[in-house]
Write a structure and sequence with these properties.
Layout: E1 2-8, E2 18-23, E3 33-40, H1 42-63, H2 69-90, E4 98-99, E5 101-107, E6 110-116, E7 120-124, E8 128-130, H3 137-143, H4 152-156, E9 174-179, E10 185-189, H5 191-194, H6 199-206, H7 212-225, E11 232-238
Antiparallel strand pairs: 1-11, 2-3, 3-4, 3-5, 5-6, 6-9, 7-8, 7-10, 10-11
Helix pairs in contact: 1-2, 6-7
Length: about 250
């Protein structure tokens, strides 16, 4: 298994409020761990929230003695939410802070995914599949048929998210289990990438057969070339599955 992780400030923002983590080594009872977070709440609050969320999430994963990966990640998300919410209430500088978080771990051929907010996880195989669903106002309106994708109101309201870690006293994460196939690659990213690159460009880069690091750099470069209006974060994972070795 190989991974690539990088976050870039983009072309416009003064501060990078994204934070990433990736390891192919065990973290507690999880055999590997990949995380992207996108903070909000101003320069200090957003930067602090994403960094704190990821670092505490990873530590809580390591300390958790449970075996079920969904239960492990869910415990960590709830505890991190409690801590960030409490800190935001005590420190005026951090008031209103919060962060998205998308995380994944691979056990055998099953990818276990946790998501809060509008950072995303994709799987690239025969085609590009978006596994997570954004917790955003526009996603809710789309699902109810009240707006059309890529309409003026869609882009005007795209950044309004409906769930974030630390924004409320309680948070509910979505969880997914994905059966990966040989040749699949996994992409976790902040909306600074997904808002700048369409599915077509993403597919073209991820299906090109290049090395993982080259694909990761190409995704970031294309996002910046297309505007780079936000921080851009990318975590790529090549599980290197075959028909025999699935451990």
């Amino acid at each position: 298994m190989n991974s690539f992780a990088k976050t870039d400030i983009g072309n416009i923002r003064k501060v990078n409020e994204d934070y990433v983590f990736a390891t192919v080594e065990p973290s507690g009872n999880l055999k590997n761990l990949f995380v992207v977070a996108d903070g909000m709440g101003g320069h200090q609050g957003g930067d602090y929230a994403s960094r704190y969320a990821v670092e505490r999430f990873v530590q809580l994963i390591k300390d958790n003695e449970k075996e079920n990966p969904i239960a492990i990640m869910n415990d960590a998300i709830r505890l991190v939410n409690d801590e960030i919410y409490e800190q935001a209430g005590k420190n005026p500088v951090l008031e209103g802070m919060g962060t998205t978080l998308v995380a994944a771990t691979l056990i055998g051929r099953t990818l276990y995914v946790a998501n809060v907010g509008d950072s995303r996880l994709y799987v690239m195989g025969d085609e590009l599949r978006q596994i997570t669903r954004d917790h955003s106002w526009v996603e809710e309106m789309l699902s109810e048929g009240k707006i059309e994708k890529d309409s003026e109101i869609y882009w005007a309201k795209k950044n309004i998210i409906t769930r974030a870690i630390g924004a409320y006293a309680q948070v509910t994460a979505d969880f997914f289990e994905v059966d990966l196939q040989p040749g699949d690659r996994v992409l976790l990213c902040s909306d600074g990438l997904s808002n700048m690159i369409g599915d077509g460009q993403m597919t073209e880069i991820l299906s090109g057969g290049d090395a993982l690091i080259k694909q990761g750099e190409q995704l970031i470069s294309k996002g910046k070339a297309n505007g780079g209006k936000d921080n851009i974060s990318v975590v790529l994972v090549d599980p290197e599955l075959d028909e025999v070795n699935v451990c």
